[in-house]
Amino acid sequence: MFELDGVEVLGHSSIRIAKEKIIYIDPFRIKKDYNDADLVLCTHSHYDHFSIDDIRKVKKDDTMILVTEDVKEEAMLMGVNPLNVVGVKPYQEFEFEDISIETIPAYNKFKEFHPKEKEWVRIYNRN
Predict the structure, then answer these.
(1) For residue 122, what pLDDT band results from cuts at 50, 70 and 90?
(2) CATH of the domain spanning 2-125, picked from 3.30.300.30, 3.60.15.10, 3.30.565.10, 3.20.20.140
């Protein structure tokens, strides 16, 4: 595990940011039940980026979850307030309390399992 000023790389593409808010990006293979997430961001529907088992290990009752549209309905079945699940597409902007988030397209024209038409995203903090 790698940590730098509140940022932990938990493995693969999973990141935990613990600053003013607790943010998880693509939680995967989470080793313990943190249940402390203010915000969970999932970039696409592959099992190693959208893992319900791992999201359950980090979410709490009021966690806001941003997922791509193709898994929004599945995310709403995780025992969270459906109003706290937001489906995202590329080129959108969101505000979560004092955090500004922007999505851009994420695809790979050389890998057929990451096609542009899926509208998966990369996520940036605009602050």
Answers:
(1) confident
(2) 3.60.15.10
